[in-house]
Write a structure and sequence with these properties.
The structure is a single chain. This protein has 13 helices and no strands. By secondary structure, the protein is mostly helical. It has a single domain, classed as Farnesyl Diphosphate Synthase, CATH 1.10.600. It is globular and about 50 Å long.
Length: 276
């Protein structure tokens, strides 16, 4: 039975998917308001799968590895446990051409975090950002549809990677507080410090890398059949975090960089109009 057979009487998992998006992904939730109704709930369900696995891994929940392995088995079309995530993916696959290889790559990124591996080079960071976020862009593009998926796919991956690099810069101090560093070791060594007030050069370098990915990613938005306004708005709101980092002195002070909601709404409105 479909998980969302009747949108007027949503199943409990769909309720949770909607609430999870609105509670923990405020920027993404704002962008989702611009999605066509016919795909919006499927995007919420997709987000629930990605977010659940990510939270299980980040929080060190017992059984996280098994839940990741179940999705990896589904991606490989192997027999495995039918977890809630697998059930959602099976349902989504009845309506959309879900690229299973993208989920296999996402699971590889989750295993990276489970094993606590470090990122030595910028190439390592790019691989990691593709695995944990570029894959999200790829699956999103599959759900929204495109004129030529093979052309749209690398742009969608680049946009997801840009957003992940943005998250890394936004959360530098929060990650450091729990002993995590998602920047390349060689880059940190080259610039000398991650300390507030001593990382302007590093932040400028990383912002430039993220901006280049945004350019590549946004170039693919016109290829989407649905949701162009939503994706454009999400890209604009996320990219504004980089501009906020610049306005605040490239990490001159510690703490998480936040873009005020009125500013986000203004950007979302502008981007939504331009992407029609």
């Amino acid at each position: 039975m479909s998980l969302i057979a009747d949108h007027t009487q949503p199943a409990p998992v769909l309720d949770e998917a909607r609430l999870t998006t609105r509670r923990v992904a405020r920027t993404f939730a704002l962008a989702c308001r611009l999605l066509p109704r016919e795909v919006r709930d499927d995007v919420y369900l997709l987000y629930l799968v990605f977010r659940t696995l990510d939270d299980l891994v980040d929080d060190g929940i017992p059984g996280a590895a098994a839940r990741v392995a179940a999705v990896a088995a589904w991606a490989a079309q192997d027999a495995g446990p039918r977890t809630r995530e697998v059930a959602v993916l099976e349902d989504l696959a009845t309506r959309h051409p879900i690229p299973r290889d993208a989920f296999a790559d996402f699971c590889a990124g989750m295993r990276h975090d489970l094993e606590g591996r470090s990122l030595r080079t910028e190439a390592d960071v790019d691989v990691y950002c593709y695995q944990v976020a570029g894959t999200v862009g790829v699956v999103m593009a599959a759900i929204l549809g495109s004129e030529d998926f093979e052309v749209a796919r690398p742009a969608a991956a680049a946009l997801g990677m840009a957003m992940q690099r943005t998250n890394i810069l936004r959360d530098v101090d929060e990650d450091l507080a729990v002993g995590r560093v998602y920047l390349a070791q060689e880059t940190v060594a080259r610039f000398g410090s991650l300390a507030p007030g001593r990382r302007e050069g590093l932040m400028r370098d990383q912002i430039a890398r993220a901006d280049e990915l945004y350019e590549r990613g946004c170039a693919g938005i016109p290829l989407l059949l649905h949701g162009r306004r939503a994706v454009s708005a999400a890209a604009g709101m996320y990219r504004e975090i980089l501009r906020q980092i610049e306005r605040e002195g490239y990490g001159a002070s510690p703490g998480r960089v936040v873009v005020a909601k009125p500013r986000k709404l203004l950007i979302a409105a502008r981007r939504g109009v331009l992407a029609r």
